[in-house]
Amino acid sequence: MSTFISLLRAHHDALMTASQTPVSPDMKRAIAAMESCQTEAAGWSQWYCRHCHHHDQSPLSCGHRLCPQCQHRTSATWLARQQAKLLPVHYFMITFTLPAELRGLARAQPKALYRIMFSVAASLLKDFAQRRHGGRSGFTAVLHTHSRRRDLHPHLHVMVPAGYYNPARRQWHKGPKRYLYPAVALAKVWRGRLLAAIHQHPQLYLPARLPAQWVVDCRPVGRGLPALKYLSRYLYRGVLPDRDIIGIDGDQVTFRYREGKTNHWQHRTLPIVRFLGLILQHALPKGLQRVRDYGLLHGSARAVRLIIQLLLMRLGWRGLPGEPATMTKASRSCPHCAQSMVCTGIIRTG
């Protein structure tokens, strides 16, 4: 049982009535999902062993993207999908950060603002790629909403392979391994375009004061499969893994986090209800896609990626053309004979 979910169940009523922690509809959906996760309320999967004919049942997981019990499968699925698109190039991670002055807007209108962040970052990177080499490139953007201290801190992590494809010549051009785009130029365009898009949106507003300089980071993260494995752990980690909840004393809970500059562990202690609200504020709006692929990494570009992979194989790359990732079937071992069991159905109780 997850420590966070245990706290959520034990302090449900106090959380729902706490004035300092207003519970939004998105938070309520997350609470309902996590409290039912792997319980009878979520339903059951039915299992049968063909070897010893044993029947069994197992409670279903909720699958909510905030749930600490359901994160590992999401990360594994993303990694399998990205491996099908793997290229023998260096990868970069670009981070687009929203300044503190706009975090109130993220609380009030998260769905509209986060969609604009994706749109602006994508158009910006496509324009930078077009001006630099004129070929086709691709990238994957992932939305994070929390800082290391788990405060609200919306930002986009964008994974970019260093290289581009020239469709006219059917050529792949490998990019440099240490430099992609100038971070200062990215930050200036990010600021200008995002503010313009917010100003034009009928439901969004701009505060009176905004910083003149915004933060964009662009750094290399490695080559090929090792880079993807690192990114899958980084991009799909939960808001707060249970292993980082290190103490519960009365109505106080303590969790740990790594301080960014020193990389040393720091501790933060909060009242339990405030702690629950701190984590639940990162429940994303219903229907918002948190991970988006663009260009050569988009699902519709599979044929072009296959051409690129075949071209690279002719040049000596020993990798195999990627196959589309498929969801693996759920499996479990029989508690009596240890043979594989088959799922024979799902029982919904809700």
From TrEMBL:
Domain of life: Bacteria
Residues annotated as domain Transposase zinc-binding: 10-98
Residues spanning the membrane: none
InterPro entries membership: Transposase_32 (IPR007069), Zn_Tnp (IPR026889)
Domain Transposase IS801/IS1294: 138-300
One Pfam family this sequence matches: Y2_Tnp
Protein name according to UniProt: IS91 family transposase
Organism: Oceanisphaera marina
Source lineage: Bacteria, Pseudomonadati, Pseudomonadota, Gammaproteobacteria, Aeromonadales
